[in-house]
């Protein structure tokens, strides 16, 4: 019997999503406990890969949003992830939007949020990263900001403490006064990253809330190639109107955005080919989902919603399911799957 799905999840789903998230973070403040009961990164050699020059034990990562301030990385690294993406890290302390700012659409296995970039500030996050002496998995820290200069400043400050920096070009839930959303400005920011980076950098591309998908992908991907970035993160999150959230609207993630994310991965690879690594973020809840993303051209996957619906064992379960799908499909490794998928895309 699955202790989370059949036991703990029904209890957690009786409380508001904001409170459930706080309870999860509180439980993860005990690294020794999770070291004892967690599985650690899956070291099945079939799952290993090199992404942006960083060796990963498996392609399954935690997406930004769960551990915004790097508070519980010491515990999360024992759950089976191949990498962890805390954040978004902001320069200053920010309250974010009023609660409720997290919700669930249970019948769709989805999560909704209107967080508004809450943060304990960059100094707090960096202090936590400095304390994380024994790293079992690489850290892909996400930084954001409300201006180009702030974002670049955050990249400079955070990159010494993370193996990879993910740069959020836009926050889908920021107020209009904070939104850094124009494609031309995103392209300018991408080019500016070339002058401040000292290690691997990934650009988290804007989604298609306000412009067509191709109008965003093509210029941003070209700018990433020109700037020499290692890769991009693409997400199929969607706008979702709901009375559950204080702002009346938020971002929808989880099962309903799988097809959108899959399409973005395919299109991004058709445009960029082998020139950029692609991380798929959105809709992956199973090993079969992960397999399809990798076959479409992704190099790795990051998720958050799967933790809500499958529990702390989600990364270990998805890795085992992915290994089983590889075996069933007669594919020897994740690396072979990615290469086969790229040939299928026809670049």
Word description of this protein:
- This protein has 347 residues and is α/β, with parallel strands linked by helices.
- It has one domain (3-345): Aldolase class I (TIM Barrel, Alpha-Beta Barrel), CATH 3.20.20.70.
- It is 40% helix and 16% strand.
- The chain has helices at 3-12, 17-27, 31-37, 73-76, 122-131, 148-158, 183-193, 213-227, 258-272, 287-296, 305-310, 314-329, 334-345; strands at 49-51, 54-56, 60-62, 83-84, 102-105, 110-113, 140-143, 164-168, 201-204, 231-235, 238-241, 249-254, 277-281, 300-303.
- Strands 4-3-14-13-10-9-8-7 form an 8-stranded parallel beta sheet. A 4-stranded antiparallel beta sheet has the order 5-6-12-11. Strands 1-2 form a two-stranded antiparallel ribbon.
List the helices and strands and how they pair.
Layout: H1 3-12, H2 17-27, H3 31-37, E1 49-51, E2 54-56, E3 60-62, H4 73-76, E4 83-84, E5 102-105, E6 110-113, H5 122-131, E7 140-143, H6 148-158, E8 164-168, H7 183-193, E9 201-204, H8 213-227, E10 231-235, E11 238-241, E12 249-254, H9 258-272, E13 277-281, H10 287-296, E14 300-303, H11 305-310, H12 314-329, H13 334-345
Parallel strand pairs: 3-4, 3-14, 7-8, 8-9, 9-10, 10-13, 13-14
Antiparallel strand pairs: 1-2, 5-6, 6-12, 11-12
Briefly, what is this?
With 347 residues, the protein is α/β, with parallel strands linked by helices. It has helices spanning 3-12, 17-27, 31-37, 73-76, 122-131, 148-158, 183-193, 213-227, 258-272, 287-296, 305-310, 314-329, 334-345, and strands spanning 49-51, 54-56, 60-62, 83-84, 102-105, 110-113, 140-143, 164-168, 201-204, 231-235, 238-241, 249-254, 277-281, 300-303.
